[in-house]
Specification:
It is built from 26 helices and 29 strands. The chain is an alpha/beta fold. The strands form 6 sheets. Strands 5, 6, 10, 11, 12, 13, 14 and 15 form an 8-stranded mixed beta sheet that branches. An 8-stranded parallel barrel has the order 20-21-22-25-26-27-28-29, surrounded by 7 helices. Strands 8-2-1-9-17-16 form a 6-stranded mixed beta sheet.
Length: 749
């Protein structure tokens, strides 16, 4: 097979080695536009897991690299005069030039034809069985078939500069330094016997205030040497194309077309803060060579390569995205306590959880847990055992006079099983079992304030007086048989109403027995759904009265917390989103105007709800659609809610329009709760693909939210909290009828 590889970086060279190792008969040519000495950057970083993978994939090449690596286990975080150290992380640094020299030498030995300073101006003219674009972010191969590959580049707002130094950092070092211009972030690590990488990052605004936007290398080095003089300890910085840059996050809709394929940075990038670019590039080479050896044709091999490799790459890109966003918004964390700041930093990518860190560095994690438990004791007014401290999820939390025994919440989940709004035995068992299951707060489903406000005929309600007894039966059970508290979510479906039960056709309109739906503007949910009536002032007053009566009934039923539903495209959410509110009066236009009616509802409910009981609001932080609600809008929304005596913001996202394109992943909505909590200063509840106790403890200990709501996890396992407690070695008392279990320690056989 004749293979032409465009790009002589780690991706292209490592692929060439793998191809020749697999079949010496392959003809492999590598074109590299630059000279070897023109490589950009200083050191590359691999985790211990990546080192093991490289050693297994190609033992001989790895053996030549192994003695050039500098290994470390520790991470030092310099923050507000404190140095916080954590161990057990396992990384190795390597000089980028040394890596390229070893790979090139090995490739030539195997018979690869490497052509330096060979610029491929027109990849379309290349003649080969396989053409590989390994030529980086500015790939000429990708651009030659741009429409086929569908690239998208997001140039991130922060600026960074890559430098070297003779100061040897024996731990991976982060330093967060404030001056009169703003906050500067340092990433430094040793990569050889006598050199370290020294990366400085800051916001575009801080860089502009410093006057360095168009600075020369000499000016940049001088500024950074002065700024980090104590960290450099008299050593100087070394330049290598050290200019201020923006990081490009690159994704491609496809990595292949015909016999052409993209690998490495030509196909995907991941932020340097997770040290992933070279790792991804070399792993691409391993996976592509394996697919070519396994499949009968190049076309089949490229299809198999992309199908198998893409999920792994996208998973790491999500982690890198979370990490880069953390560094882009570090300013919001600069008032947090040092231990929490360091824990937040170490777990920023979601790849390391509370349990992972506990395994790597139990002493550091124990300090975090003791600090968190002490803070929980102060916040709640309840003594918390500090030795050993409870896991963060099992610390108490107070909202007004409501004391939650722990921070696990059963999310509100529609059951579509009521009859004319009346909860029944299904709701009794559904909510009661989850309270016994150990959660601190159980949320009843979206409960409609009027019959016309229901999503479907099976939705629960509080629009009749007799509904109170149905709910009171459930509330009384929770209060009698568990330490859990119970809340109710009041809502009005708006334009998403008058639909079938979820399992009969989600969001599909009723064929018979439907009712008129309301919205701020006459925009239907879909072409199949009815056009809503645009609300006038009389409609608004009626909806406010319905919410007030429902709140009064919730109080009579004994609920501990009340939540107003302003998310997911229901009535109040459609006022907030610019996609669904096109009004030209005082209720449309700016965020403040779009919030006018929802705040009228909140004020009326707050006045009707007991002052000692907390009020929560669920919002959709983003609409996942161009032109829709963005997080900056929701920060303003949350500030308004806080100003109107809302105690907790329950932060969800999306479901505003049927054509939204969410960016799914683990904890994909938690960053919104994080920003609102820190930038608005209001307690938040995180929700959205939180399924493991490791995730919950991480979110809480890092300060990304105050409570964590889980939905599907509690559907799978009503005793989710108890199982989490057992796995964490935490004793969660059982109700009296099950008290014999307190003396029994279960074992897995």
């Amino acid at each position: 097979m004749k293979v032409v590889i465009v790009g002589g970086g780690p991706a292209g060279l490592y692929l060439a080695i793998q191809l020749k190792r697999g079949d010496a008969g392959h003809s492999v040519v590598v074109h590299e536009r630059n000279r070897p000495e023109d490589t950009y950057g200083f050191g590359v970083v691999f985790s211990d897991a990546t080192m093991e993978e490289l050693a297994s994939a190609d033992p001989e090449t790895f053996a030549r690299l192994e003695d050039r690596f500098h290994h470390w286990d520790d991470i030092d975080v310099h923050y507000r005069g404190s140095v916080l150290s954590s161990t057990g992380h396992g990384f190795s640094g390597l000089e980028r030039m040394a890596l390229l020299e070893v790979l090139a030498e090995r490739a030539r030995e195997l018979g690869v034809d490497i052509r330096a300073q060979s610029d491929v101006a027109d990849p379309v003219r290349l003649q080969a069985d396989l053409v590989v674009g390994a030529d980086g972010v500015n790939s000429v191969v990708r651009e030659a078939w741009r429409n086929d590959f569908g690239p998208a580049i997001d140039w991130r707002p922060n600026k960074f500069v890559w430098m070297g130094t003779t100061r040897l950092f024996d731990a991976f070092t982060f330093d967060f330094r404030e001056d009169e211009h703003g906050l500067w972030r340092l990433h430094a690590y040793r990569y050889s016997e006598d050199r370290s990488t020294f990366i400085v990052e800051t916001t575009d605004a801080t860089l502009a205030r410093s006057g360095l936007t168009d600075a020369s290398e000499a000016e940049t080095l001088a500024h950074c040497e002065t700024l980090f003089a104590d960290r450099l300890e008299g050593h100087q910085l070394i330049a290598n194309r050290s200019i201020w840059r923006s990081f490009p996050t690159l994704t491609c809709a496809r990595w292949r077309r015909g016999n052409v394929v993209l690998i490495g940075d030509a196909a995907h990038t991941a932020h340097f803060s997770v040290g992933s670019g070279t790792k991804l590039a070399m792993e691409d080479g391993i996976a592509l060579a394996a697919a070519l050896a396994r499949e009968d044709s190049v076309i089949a091999a490229l299809a198999a390569y992309e199908a198998g490799r893409r999920p792994e790459v996208e998973s790491l890109q999500r982690a890198a995205w979370a990490s880069l966003q953390w560094f882009e918004g570090t300013e919001r964390y600069m008032e947090t306590a040092p231990l929490q700041f360091a824990f937040n930093l170490l777990t920023r990518s979601l790849r390391i959880t509370h349990e992972d860190l506990k395994h790597r560095d139990p002493a550091f994690t124990a300090c975090v847990d003791r600090w968190f438990a002490a803070e929980a004791a102060k916040q709640s007014g309840v003594d918390v055992l500090l030795d050993p401290p409870p896991p963060p999820m099992f610390t108490p939390f107070r909202l007004r006079d409501l004391l939650l025994p722990n921070r696990i919440v059963v999310s509100a989940m529609c059951q579509y099983s009521a009859e004319d709004g009346m909860p029944n035995d299904w709701h009794y068992v559904h909510l009661g079992s989850r309270a016994v299951g150990g959660a601190g707060l159980v949320m009843a489903e979206m409960t409609d304030v009027s019959a016309e406000g229901r999503i479907s005929p099976g939705c629960a309600g509080l629009y009749r007086d007799d509904h109170v007894l149905g709910w009171k039966r459930i509330v009384d059970f929770v209060h009698r048989w568990s330490p859990a508290r119970i809340g109710i979510q009041l809502g009005h479906a708006g334009r998403k109403g008058s639909t079938k039960l979820a399992w009969e056709g989600e969001d599909e309109p009723l064929e018979t027995g439907g009712w008129e739906v309301l919205a701020p503007s006459p925009i239907p949910w879909s072409e199949a759904n009815p056009i809503p009536r645009a609300m006038d002032r009389l409609d608004m007053e009626a909806v406010i009265r319905d919410h007030v009566r429902a709140a009064e009934r919730a109080m009579e039923a004994g609920f501990d917390l009340l939540e107003v539903h302003m998310a997911h495209g229901y009535l109040l959410a459609t006022f907030i989103s610019p996609l669904t509110n096109l009004r030209q009066d005082e209720y449309g236009g700016s965020v403040a105007n779009r919030m006018r009616f929802p705040l009228e509802v909140v004020d009326a409910v707050r006045a009707a709800w007991p002052a000692e009981k907390p009020l929560s609001v669920r919002i959709s932080a983003v609409d996942w659609t161009p032109g829709g609600q963005e997080i900056e809008d929701s920060l303003e929304v949350s500030r308004l809610l806080k100003a109107h005596d809302v105690d907790l913001v329950d932060v969800s996202a999306g479901q505003t329009v049927p054509f939204a394109k969410p960016r799914y992943g683990r904890q994909f909505q938690t960053p919104f709760a994080d920003r609102i909590r820190h930038e608005v200063g209001v307690p938040t509840m995180a929700v959205g693909n939180i399924s493991s106790y490791m995730d919950v403890n991480t979110i809480l200990a890092a300060g990304r939210a105050d409570l964590c709501a889980l939905a599907r996890a509690h559907l799978w396992d009503p005793y989710w909290a108890r199982n989490a407690a057992w796995r964490l070695g935490y004793k969660l008392p059982w109700p009296d009828p099950y008290s014999t279990l307190d003396r029994y320690t279960p074992r897995f056989e």
